[in-house]
TrEMBL record:
Pfam families: CHGN (PF05679)
SUPFAM superfamilies linked: Nucleotide-diphospho-sugar transferases
Main location class: Golgi
Alphabetical list of PANTHER family matching this protein: CHONDROITIN SYNTHASE, N-ACETYL-BETA-GLUCOSAMINYL-GLYCOPROTEIN 4-BETA-N-ACETYLGALACTOSAMINYLTRANSFERASE 1
Source organism: Athene cunicularia
Descriptive protein name: Hexosyltransferase
Domain of life: Eukaryota
GO cellular component labels: Golgi cisterna membrane
Length: 679
């Protein structure tokens, strides 16, 4: 989206008279004019459209009635504040201009000459990130039609409140209250691929998804008109594909899978919608359909309607309606058709759903019921291992002796009987076979030969561990300022002092990054200045190198990110030193979208947003700064390969309200600027 606000200009008219203004633009625009030089008195005078579909040609000042203002009495002895807002999508050319005329209908609008315009504020000495001087008016906030759509209810279910979003504010239960509730047990999942040879960029094939309960509404139902992959009927969707003979280049894996799927769809022959069973399509109906096809072939050359005669063609036959035709449907749960492998072909599906019956079997045995009463199951996450046992993260809201409310957030493990099933798992360290389904859970019991609900050793997360956000930047002043402001707001909302912002600055000349950090209300920050071209891998490595405590978490981050309030809690509970790393899936916003209007898709391919303990990061060798010296793209997949080979699990979940802003690539880092043609 291109958005332009010019709140620093004022206007001087001719001597006393009535004037009309008009605005022309592609796409939408608004012209706001004050009755004097005060921004607070601005009112909307003229506009082009509200919906994003309206536009005009350059200088086309009378296409819409809304473009032209009412007659306004102006005096040359006064100055008049104005604002011009412009909104453009990612298609076509963009322009905006304002014209005026003395109020005589026979006169044409003329573009306002610059001699009548003066700066509201002199910005010549200001850096790009300085925005405090810009007036906050109705035009740039609730009064604008361009923002009106954001006030209406959006179709994304994820925008609705969820107790997960603020559960981190609930006081935690004392660890001593629950440490002896379950028997301890060793935690060693079979899907861990320690020391297993992984081809370059094939680590994605060994990342599995977790199941969640209750529904977190991360499924992008409002985007399924553009992508219906959730309803795939091809059996290939239910099976994990391998690239057996070749190693795909970065970024090509998803396209290859999609191509194979479409090829299979074309070769399957006649398709029957999943809502209507093949057995219900009777032979007579199929014969009727065949006959209709033959008729259509014969009449293929005949138009349904002739514009020359204005009459129906004589040979045109209208299908009769069979009011007796019916079909039957049965309940279909498409969630049951999904697998826990990392599907790179579907970027609108949400987190996998966990059945309620399984949850209620686990929850009652995880806390001392003599002291606590269950108020609410806030969140349950399950990592499936059919060979050895399932891991659960339980997050429960409990009442302590009927008084204060506390939060339980701990990992538990359902350990299967150590027998032949476990021996077979040792022979298959890659985990369960593709497409394998999970057996129905048995009632929990500590009897020999039955599954045991236990406390997994060395799988406890620390609720106050330090988190370091590491971000390399160069010449993105407004975005850098936005990121710093978001981090300050995160601190204000959580009052959490255990996080640190590390900005690695590659010679930015459009702002003073260090001063911006100093002025922000952050619990702590570190500023590193580097020279030379922007290098993401080197920047991340330099930032991590400043962290001295190996028992803290580093979160490798990008600049254009919107964080939910529970981001710190989410990172901490999915990172366990020596066991777990965390790669939350971010939603990539489309052009013109915002966190209040989240149109876009889940970035299922990207692993650039990555949380890991500093000791584990060092152990796997850190970033590959040699191979990815003068380029970026693929460094996240290469790091993922080494993280998995070290024996760590990578937790992969779609995180609610976690967005990547759409932004222009212009002027970014190493991009070369085209020189204008010589006259």
């Amino acid at each position: 989206i291109a958005s332009l606000t010019l709140p620093w200009c004022s206007l001087r008219p001719f001597p006393l008279g009535d004037f009309q203004f008009s605005v022309a633009s592609d796409d939408n625009s608004e012209f706001w004019l004050s009755s004097d030089d005060s921004p607070s008195n601005s009112r909307l005078a003229a506009f082009v459209g509200k919906l994003g579909t309206e536009w005009t040609a350059p200088g086309e000042f009378t296409k819409f009635s809304s473009q032209v203002s009412k007659p306004l009495r102006l005096m040359s002895s006064r100055r008049y504040y104005f604002e011009l807002l412009h909104k453009q999508d990612d298609r076509g050319s963009d322009h905006v201009e304002v014209g005026w005329r003395v109020f005589l209908p026979s006169l044409k609008f003329e573009v306002i000459d610059s001699s009548y315009i003066s700066l509201y504020t002199d910005e010549s000495s200001l850096k790009m990130n300085h925005v405090e001087h810009i007036p906050q008016t109705l035009a740039s906030h609730s009064g604008s039609y361009l923002w009106e759509a954001q006030q209406d209810e959006h179709g994304a279910d994820m925008l609705k409140s969820d107790p997960r979003d603020t559960f981190f504010l609930t006081p935690a239960i004392e660890a001593s209250r629950v440490e002896n509730v379950l028997v301890p047990c060793a935690y060693s999942p079979t899907y861990v691929v320690k020391d297993f040879p992984i081809a370059r960029y094939q680590g994605l094939q060994f990342v599995y998804l977790s199941f969640v309960y209750p529904n977190d509404f991360t499924r992008l139902t409002h985007m399924e008109t553009e992508n219906k992959c959730f309803y795939r009927e091809s059996p290939l969707y239910l099976e994990k594909e391998t690239h057996e003979d070749t190693t795909p280049a970065p970024g090509k894996m998803a396209a290859t899978a999609a191509y194979n799927s479409s090829e299979a769809a074309r070769s399957e022959g006649p398709r029957v919608t999943s809502f209507l069973k093949m057995s219900e399509t009777t032979a007579s109906q199929r014969e009727e359909g065949k006959g209709q096809e033959e008729e259509e072939e014969e009449e293929e050359e005949v138009s349904d309607y002739s514009y020359e005669t204005g009459e129906l063609q004589q040979g045109w036959l209208e299908d009769s309606i069979n009011w007796q035709r019916t079909f039957s449907v049965s309940s279909v749960d498409f969630e049951l058709l999904r697998s826990d492998w990392n599907d790179l072909r579907c970027n609108v599906s949400g987190n996998l759903q966990l059945s309620e019956s399984e949850v209620v079997d686990v929850v009652p045995f995880s806390f001392p019921r003599s002291i606590y009463t269950l108020l609410r199951i806030v969140n349950v996450e399950k990592r499936r291992d059919t060979a050895r046992g399932n891991r659960y993260l339980l997050e429960l809201e409990l009442a302590e002796r009927g008084q204060r409310t506390v939060r339980l957030s701990e990992y538990v493990y359902v350990l299967l009987h150590q027998g032949k099933q476990d021996d077979s798992a040792e022979a298959n360290p890659d985990g369960p076979a593709p497409g394998a389904t999970e057996p129905q859970p048995s009632p929990w019991s500590i009897l020999y030969g039955k599954p045991i609900l236990c406390r997994p050793l060395r799988l406890s997360w620390k609720q106050d561990v330090m988190v370091h956000f590491v971000v390399p930047v160069k010449n993105q002043a407004r975005w850098v300022q936005q990121f710093i402001s978001d981090m300050a707001r995160l601190y204000g909302a959580t009052k959490d002092t255990n996080f640190n912002v590390i900005l690695v600055d590659f010679d930015s000349d459009d702002m003073d990054v260090e001063k911006a950090l100093q002025d922000a209300r952050l619990p702590r920050y570190q500023y590193l200045r580097r020279t030379g071209n922007f290098e993401r891998s080197a920047g991340l490595q330099a930032g991590v190198d400043t962290v001295e405590d190996g028992h803290s978490i580093v979160f490798l981050c990008d600049l254009h990110i919107h964080f939910p309030p529970n981001i710190l809690d989410s990172i901490r509970k999915h990172c366990v030193e020596g066991k777990l790393a965390y790669a939350p899936i971010v939603m990539r916003l489309s052009c013109g979208s915002s966190p209040r209007e989240p149109n876009g898709y889940w970035e299922v391919n990207g692993f650039g947003l990555f949380g890991i303990y500093k000791s584990d990061f060092d152990r796997v060798g850190g970033m590959n700064t040699e191979e990815f010296r003068d380029r970026w793209g693929g460094e996240d997949w290469e790091l993922l390969d080494r993280v998995l080979q070290s024996g760590l699990e990578v937790e992969r979940l779609r995180l609610r309200n976690f967005y990547h802003y759409y932004h222009s690539k212009r002027g970014m880092w190493n991009a070369r600027i085209k020189k204008p043609p010589k006259d």
